[in-house]
Design a protein that fits this description.
Rossmann fold; three-stranded antiparallel β-sheet; 10 helices; 41% helix
C-alpha cells in the first residue's frame, strides 16, 4: 500500500490508473479505524479496480474545539489495518494541504435544511464543514464512486443530496452499520466508553429495535413511540438529544401513512455522544 500526502501526487496516481481504464473508489475517514471502516473499504474493493482511503481529521466540521483536540489519532495503527486488507492507497493530507489559505475565509459548501434537524440542531456549522471537505476530496480524487456508512445517516443523506444537486458524476454507496457483539454501532468514539458504559450502550440499539417493533404493530402514534423511547433512555441515565422517526427519503418528520422510515437517535452516555439509526419499512 502506498501513502500519499499531497494533492499533486494523488492526482498523478489517479491519472495513471485512468490511462489504464481502471475505476476508482473513495472512502473518506477521520482515522481511528475499526472494523466498520474496514468493511467500507472492502465494499469499495468489490466495486472498483482501485481504492483511495483518506485519513483526515477535519477541523472545519468540529463546533467544539475540545472535541477536536480529543478526537483519537492513530495513524500508524490505521495504516497497518489498511495494509492488512490490501488497500491500494491511503491519502493523509495535512490541514495546510487541505486548507492552504486557512479556514476563516475559505469557500464553504452549504447543503440546506441540515441545521434545523437531528444532529444539526446541536452542532451548528458541522454539516457545512462535512459538505465542504467532502466536495474538496471529490475534486482531488475524482472517484467513480464513494462509500459511506449508514451509521451516519444524516451525513449520508447530505452527501447524496449534494452530489445530486451539483450534478457530480459520482455514485454514492451506503454500507450497512457494522456492530459490536452487543449491538452497539461501531464508532471511533466507543473507545472513550468505560467498561460499564460500553455494556450499557447496547441499550441504544435495543431501544431502536423496540421502537421499530412498535411502529410495525401500529398501535401507537409516532410521537408516542418517540416519547416512550426518550423516557426509557433517560431512566437508564442516558442524556438523549433526540430519538426521531423520519422519512428515509428526505429526513422530514414522518406522519401516519409514511412507509419508508428511519428511526434515528443521538444520546450522551457519560462524556461520550453516540449516534445510531435503523430502517423501518411499513410497506
Amino acid at each position: 500500500m502506498q501513502r500519499i500526502e499531497t494533492t499533486s501526487s494523488l492526482r498523478a496516481q489517479v491519472k495513471a490508473w485512468r490511462k489504464n481504464n481502471k475505476t476508482v473508489a473513495f472512502v473518506p475517514t477521520m482515522g481511528s479505524l475499526h472494523k466498520g471502516h474496514l468493511s467500507l473499504v472492502n465494499k469499495a474493493k468489490e466495486l472498483a479496480d482501485h481504492v483511495v482511503v483518506s485519513i483526515f481529521v477535519n477541523p472545519l466540521q468540529f463546533d467544539d474545539k475540545a472535541d477536536l483536540t480529543a478526537y483519537p489519532r492513530t495513524i500508524d495503527s490505521d495504516i497497518q489495518k489498511l495494509t492488512s486488507i490490501d488497500c491500494d492507497t491511503v491519502f493523509t493530507p495535512s490541514v495546510n494541504v487541505m486548507y492552504p489559505h486557512g479556514m476563516v475565509t475559505h469557500t464553504n459548501v452549504t447543503v440546506p435544511n441540515m441545521d434545523d434537524k437531528l444532529c444539526g440542531l446541536k452542532r451548528p456549522g458541522h454539516f457545512d464543514g462535512v459538505g465542504t471537505v467532502v466536495i474538496k476530496f471529490f475534486n482531488i480524487v475524482q472517484p467513480d464512486l464513494a462509500v459511506f456508512g449508514e451509521k451516519d445517516y444524516q451525513q449520508l443523506f447530505l452527501i447524496k443530496k449534494m452530489v445530486t444537486d451539483l450534478n457530480l458524476a459520482i455514485d454514492i454507496v451506503g454500507s450497512p452499520t457494522f456492530r459490536e457483539r452487543n449491538g452497539l454501532a461501531m464508532s471511533s468514539r466507543n473507545q472513550h466508553l468505560s467498561d460499564d458504559e460500553y455494556d450499557r450502550a447496547a441499550e441504544i440499539y435495543q431501544t431502536l429495535q423496540t421502537s421499530k417493533l412498535q411502529l410495525e404493530e401500529g398501535k401507537l402514534s409516532f410521537s408516542e413511540i418517540e416519547k416512550l423511547a426518550l423516557t426509557h433512555l433517560q431512566k437508564l441515565n442516558f442524556d438523549p438529544d433526540y430519538i426521531d422517526i423520519r422519512r428515509a427519503d428526505d429526513l422530514e418528520r414522518a406522519h401516519a401513512g409514511d412507509k419508508n422510515l428511519r428511526i434515528l437517535v443521538a444520546t450522551g452516555i457519560g462524556k461520550t455522544r453516540l449516534i445510531d439509526n435503523i430502517a423501518c419499512n411499513l410497506a
